[in-house]
Amino acid sequence: MTVKTERAAAIRWIQDQMADYDLTMDELRAAGCFDPPPPPPPPPAPPPVVCYRNAAGQNWDGTGEMPDWLRRAVNAGQSVEFYRVG
């Protein structure tokens, strides 16, 4: 079947369904059949980039408040740069 004949067959099928169920264009319009589709959801945010990590695997991306594990290490005299990744 060509696209043109497939389209004609689809139109006939829709017309048959409307006749079988006694549907009008106004009813279909009221049901939202011709509303544009909703916009796609935004893509998920990328995972945070790990900037600091300790030997136990705890990490911090460098934004927000410094985590307790890093604050304790800095207060004990360790440099923040010691925990920097890459």
Which features characterize this protein?
single chain; 86 residues; mainly alpha; 2 domains; two-stranded antiparallel ribbon; 5% strand
As a percent range, the share of helical residues equals 25-40%
Q: Quick one: overall form?
A: rod-shaped
Q: How many individual helices?
A: 3
* Strand content bin: under 5%
Give, in order, the helices and strands: HHEEH
SS-based structural class? mainly alpha
**Average pLDDT number:** 94
What's the topology here?
Blueprint: H1 3-20, H2 25-30, E1 52-53, E2 59-60, H3 68-75
Antiparallel strand pairs: 1-2
Please characterize this protein's 3D structure.
There is one protein chain. By secondary structure, the chain is mainly alpha-helical. The chain has 2 domains: 35 residues, no CATH class; 32 residues, no CATH class. It is 37% helix and 5% strand. Strands 1-2 form a two-stranded antiparallel ribbon. A hairpin with a 5-residue loop joins strand 1 and strand 2.
